């Protein structure tokens, strides 16, 4: 079926899986880590990619269209949506990487974590929901973490923000279903990114390399899940964390992952 430029596409149904080849994706936080790997893999799969970051000068991804986007700045978010009107896949990856506890930590850090992981994600979704609707429904992938289901000592603030983001993802899925938008949660454990390693080192964590999973594998897992129409995409740590929800609350035991 062909569609005229500017003509709304027929909403995608659950029987019409998302095809990444020929799609147009916008990925937040692409200057490093998982976001950069998402952009590179999407390009490899034949998608057009808007690679966004708060510091676009640090984005080095040949073939991608680089945009400045600060997900905590509504004006910036709206500007991105005004430019990227052909997007049919939104990947909410970028967020503040601070570390802190809810009770004893810096309250500004707690607020920034919630502002970026929850409200920043929500702002992007609200801005791009009409864009996705106009392009046939498409899909949204929210990058969460296993700590959404098992809090982590010394970073309970991040765990709380990720839990809130999971609830947001489930709510948005219901709201956007009528327009044919797939809303998926990607829930990995520990991503072997320089950002995570530096953050953990700064916080005093001593963790072996073994539990960390390479970002290129995780990105392939997530994108395969989108093409399969999955609403929750988990690595082995995410699956183990999800299984704990049927029992008493547990912490994310970093030392037991090696």
UniProtKB/TrEMBL annotation:
Pfam families: adh_short. Belongs to the short-chain dehydrogenases/reductases (SDR) family. The keyword Glycosyltransferase does not apply. InterPro entries: NAD(P)-bd_dom_sf (IPR036291), SDR_fam (IPR002347). It comes from Streptomonospora nanhaiensis. Residues 1-20 are annotated as: Disordered. Keywords: Oxidoreductase. This is SDR family NAD(P)-dependent oxidoreductase.
């Amino acid at each position: 079926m062909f569609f005229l430029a500017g003509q709304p596409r027929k909403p995608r149904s659950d029987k019409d899986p998302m095809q990444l080849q020929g799609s147009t994706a916008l990925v937040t936080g692409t200057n490093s880590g998982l976001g950069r790997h998402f952009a590179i893999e999407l390009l490899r799969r034949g998608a057009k990619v808007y690679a966004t970051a708060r510091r676009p000068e640090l984005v080095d991804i040949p073939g991608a269209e680089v945009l400045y986007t600060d997900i905590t700045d509504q004006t910036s978010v709206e500007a991105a949506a005004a430019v990227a009107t052909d997007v049919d896949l939104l990947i909410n990856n970028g967020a503040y990487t601070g570390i802190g506890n809810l009770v004893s930590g810096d309250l500004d850090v707690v607020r920034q974590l919630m502002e970026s992981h929850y409200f920043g994600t929500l702002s992007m979704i609200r801005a791009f929901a009409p864009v996705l609707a106009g392009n046939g429904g498409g899909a949204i992938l929210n990058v969460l973490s296993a700590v959404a289901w098992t809090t982590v000592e010394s970073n309970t603030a991040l765990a709380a923000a990720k839990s809130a983001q999971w609830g947001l993802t489930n709510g948005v899925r219901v709201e956007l279903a009528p327009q044919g938008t797939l809303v998926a949660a990607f829930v990995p454990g520990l991503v072997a990114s320089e950002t995570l390693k530096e953050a953990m080192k700064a916080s005093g964590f001593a963790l072996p390399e073994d539990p960390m999973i390479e970002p290129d594998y995780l990105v392939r897992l997530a994108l395969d899940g989108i093409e399969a129409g999955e609403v929750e995409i988990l690595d082995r740590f995410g699956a183990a964390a999800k299984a704990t929800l049927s029992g008493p609350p547990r912490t994310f035991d970093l030392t037991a992952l090696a």
